[in-house]
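User: quick one, sequence for these tokens?
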């Protein structure tokens, strides 16, 4: 039987009375436990970029080191960008030994499918200029169909541009054609390129998030829109990952499919009912990764926040920044939260209700809860770094440098020395070249999101 709990931690249990509008932080943690032998079958949908770039052979680290030892690679400038040139007489060998991302993807799909059970279902949708469902809700043990689907992905006959919206639309149509209960659902999106239909893709992603279906994203290389993929994951309760080496795909996809089996509750949401004159200014996803979540639409003070799926023993957490009104001394309820979810079989679980109750006192203690202070310090470092990257992208070198240097100081104070070192290196690159290279940008964005993860 699935057991869920909703735990609230307030930045202050009492606030000053008669002092005007104030800020109150509420940390909402959801933790669950269930019997693994009661798991429902899983339906995993893999949405894969099949644009031409996925079929370009890439030398892995071992092959590149070998070329360096043989003196077969040297750095040259191409259009002002440093690139590695391979000796002409070895190009045929490199092409033969190097593997394209699509080849690694084939290995990843085969390996991840082995993690699924015979009663699970696997769907694969390829996208480029158009989308095509190469595998529709089939058993992962159907080797013939699986190999045929992998061959189609590697061939990649879906056009030359990269449009994600048709793939998301095909995913929604596929899910609509299946029974709404009986399966836990998980979507994994993989892309290595710049999608041309960002706004339309985001609209479809919001639709999936509203249905509390987790969308995990994997960005490969340095040319994809990391903020778009992060937003997909944050608003739906999925994971967002970044890899530069396609040989990492099998392990990463294996982890994602494994998470699907850890689901003990699905279609989770947090219903919020605000007291009069209480407003939500910001919602941050704290765990499993740090990111900003769109504030839900409120009607008569009521709104809902989609949480996606809840995994076994994994603490998911969100931080609500409230603007609370002035009051005379007394005890007031400012917010009611209600956790709603289904078990893996699709049956509704008993709702869990919690109230945010605060005492307004003329001599309230001004000290903040130490647990919330620790989280807010890490959130501040994350914001500084994001602001710096935005300023650098806009050409504000001086402003970005100041923010990066402030972030380095914060990270050192937090004991995050490796991340501080990476941030300092980005600051140095910015001062020397006037910009931060794409790989540094993505490395910092993804690493900073892990500042609040459990350790």
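Assistant:
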């Amino acid at each position: 039987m699935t057991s869920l709990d909703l735990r609230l931690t307030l930045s202050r249990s009492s606030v000053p009375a008669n002092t005007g509008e104030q800020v109150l932080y509420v940390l909402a943690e959801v933790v669950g436990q269930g019997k693994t032998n009661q798991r429902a079958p899983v339906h995993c949908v893999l949405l894969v970029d099949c644009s031409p770039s996925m079929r370009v052979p890439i030398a892995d680290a071992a092959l590149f080191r070998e070329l360096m030892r043989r003196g077969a690679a040297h750095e040259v400038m191409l259009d002002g960008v440093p690139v590695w040139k391979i000796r002409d007489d070895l190009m045929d060998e490199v092409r033969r030994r190097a593997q394209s991302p699509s080849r690694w993807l084939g290995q990843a799909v085969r390996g991840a499918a082995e993690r699924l059970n015979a009663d699970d279902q696997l769907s694969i949708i390829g996208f480029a200029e158009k989308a095509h469902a190469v595998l529709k809700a089939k058993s992962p043990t159907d080797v013939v169909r699986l190999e045929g689907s992998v061959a189609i992905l590697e061939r990649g006959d879906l056009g030359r541009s990269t449009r994600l919206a048709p793939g998301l639309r095909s995913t929604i149509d596929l899910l609509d054609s299946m029974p709404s209960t009986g399966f836990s659902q998980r979507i994994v999106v993989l892309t290595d390129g710049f999608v041309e239909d960002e706004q339309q893709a985001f609209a479809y992603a919001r639709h999936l998030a509203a249905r509390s279906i987790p969308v995990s994203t994997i960005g490969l290389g340095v040319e994809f829109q990391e903020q778009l993929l992060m937003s997909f994951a944050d608003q739906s309760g999925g994971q967002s990952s970044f890899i530069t080496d396609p040989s990492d795909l099998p392990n990463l996809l294996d982890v994602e499919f494994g998470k699907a089996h850890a689901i003990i509750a699905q279609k989770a949401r947090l219903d919020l009912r605000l007291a009069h004159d209480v407003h939500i200014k910001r919602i941050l996803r704290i765990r499993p990764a740090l990111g900003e979540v769109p504030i839900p639409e409120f009607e008569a003070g009521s709104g809902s926040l989609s949480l996606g799926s809840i995994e076994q023993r994994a603490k998911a957490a969100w931080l609500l920044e409230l603007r609370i009104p002035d009051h005379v001394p007394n005890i007031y309820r400012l917010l009611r939260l209600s956790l709603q979810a289904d078990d893996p079989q699709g049956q509704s679980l008993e709702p869990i209700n919690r109230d945010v109750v605060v005492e307004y006192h003329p001599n309230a203690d001004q000290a903040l809860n130490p647990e919330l202070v620790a989280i807010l310090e890490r959130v501040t470092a994350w914001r500084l770094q994001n602001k710096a990257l935005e300023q650098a992208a806009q050409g504000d070198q001086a402003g970005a440098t100041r923010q990066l240097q402030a972030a380095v100081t914060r990270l050192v104070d937090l004991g995050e020395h490796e991340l501080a070192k990476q941030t300092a290196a980005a600051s140095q690159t910015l001062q020397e070249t006037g910009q931060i290279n794409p790989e540094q940008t993505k490395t910092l964005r993804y690493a900073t999101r892990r500042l609040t993860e459990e350790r």
